[in-house]
Amino acid sequence: MTWLDICALDEINPLGSRIVDGPKGDIAIFRTSDDEVFALDDRCPHKGGPLSQGLIYGKRVACPLHNWQIELASGDAVAPDVGCAHRHQVKVANGRVLLAVKAAAQCA
Questions:
Q1: Would you state the pLDDT for residue 1?
Q2: Residue 49, SS3?
Q3: pTM of the full predicted structure?
Q4: Half-sphere exposure at residue 36, Cβ-oriented, CA atoms within 13 angstroms
Q5: How open is the CA angle 1-94-75, to the nearest 5 degrees?
Q6: pLDDT for residue 108
Q7: Domain ranges in the chain?
Q8: What CA–CA distance (Å, rounded) separates 76 from 44?
Q9: Distance, CA of 25 to CA of 40 (rounded, Å)
Q10: Which CATH number does 2-101 carry?
Q11: 97 and 45 Cβ atoms separated by less than 8 Å
């Protein structure tokens, strides 16, 4: 697996996101208040809303269109909603955000 250097962690605000062009559309990289990073396709499974524009709280993001709650770690919608946003491997190394270059992981 190859890791693509995206940016310094400090370039993504806490409780913020950054969009990266992916092979199948935009990928949103999220930073939580405790500096964890997660990456999901930037499309809500409900109506395709831009998750990168949603509010981040804890380890979830709320879609800005209809407030669906999406788990950042898995991409799964929180019940009673059903669906998932494809997730991507991402990590922080030496203060840099790195994104795995490969196909999106499928939801369970």
A1: 83
A2: coil
A3: 0.90
A4: 11
A5: 55
A6: 52
A7: 2-101
A8: 10
A9: 11
A10: 2.102.10.10
A11: no
